[in-house]
User: Fold this.
Amino acid sequence: MDRILYVTQIVLALIGLYQLLLTFFGWFRKKTKKSFAPQKSFAVLVAAHNEEQVVGALIENLKNLNYPKELYDIMVICDNCSDGTADIARSMGVMAFERRNPNLRGKGYAIEWMLKELWKLPKSYDGVVMFDADNLVEQDFLIHMNDDLCSGYRVVQAYLDTKNPHDSWITSAYAISYWYCNRLWQLPRTNLKLANYLGGTGMCFETDLLREMGWGATSLVEDLEFTMRCVKQGIYPYFDYDAKVYDEKPLGFKASARQRLRWMQGHFDVARRYFFPLLWQGLKEANWAKTDTAIYALNVYNLFLGGLITIVLYADQFRPGDPYFTSLFENAPWFFGVLYAMNLLVFPLSLLMEKAPKKIWRSLITFPVFLISWYPVTFYAFFTQNNKQWSHTQHTRVIRLEEVQSKQAS
Assistant:
């Protein structure tokens, strides 16, 4: 048992070192992106479940994008709605597609259904863009998606930001996490030409790809599942740093924990199904992108095992007699001390690089609490990972794009 625990510590340390080294490739941005005249047409899909409070602000935002109006149509997926979401969409002059299926709930199922409806329409589109109803979008979003599709990218993930970072310590923690992930997780993979991962919203897909592959991602984390499906087929999602989407985050800890529990339950499910096939492909083909994506899929198990081993080692230290288990940290305390410190410093570093609002820096004081809270959430998710029941996060913050932009600058 001691040997197994020791080897597991070594594997986790190597993965942590690998991920830390990757962050160094996010310290710079390659500005080699080509620009094209607007030519691609888009079906802009908005996933909504009882979102009458916020969907109007997004529709208004989307109708005013800086892109030829004849080249995009807005369609709201009203998934099992019992409120006025569909009525609001139609009153604002956009299409509303109402889905009723209480047995198959969740965004993954709604997207799969909507794509079948989309293929039935007489009009065809070059690309399909997906947003959540609580989002806001920068006005040049479709310009960037047009450039990306014209450049040959088939799956694109936009830069995800938060529209309410100053509402509570929880929303501030989400914002810090987003800035960190954009700059030091996504951008390094873009610079190294690896596969990026999808974030659930602000996604663009080449229509032909969706017709070829189908959606087929109906887990609790449909974005991660579709990422895995793409990478297995040699299609690497691209991260567009310049295309920005703002997402609403829950205000309280309880709602946040419920949302993150769903994410982690889904992550366990996807990791269980895709890690070994992707890792085997990556090693057999000597393909770094596939191997890296497999390691990313494993992150949920890294968090679970890391927390479990920490508890075991601490408990072993406090029991009577000499410690039974060998601690890797005790063998090289300076190395692991520096590694741990650097993994914490990447968060303020990402804030500096992303020119985060000055007000957000104070939230670094409470941010460690948010990080630590991932452990109980992950532990609970591990023992409930067979749960497939989707839970809705309520959105209520009606904010306009101008407000978000002014707060970002303050």
About this structure: The first strand starts at residue 42 and ends at 48.
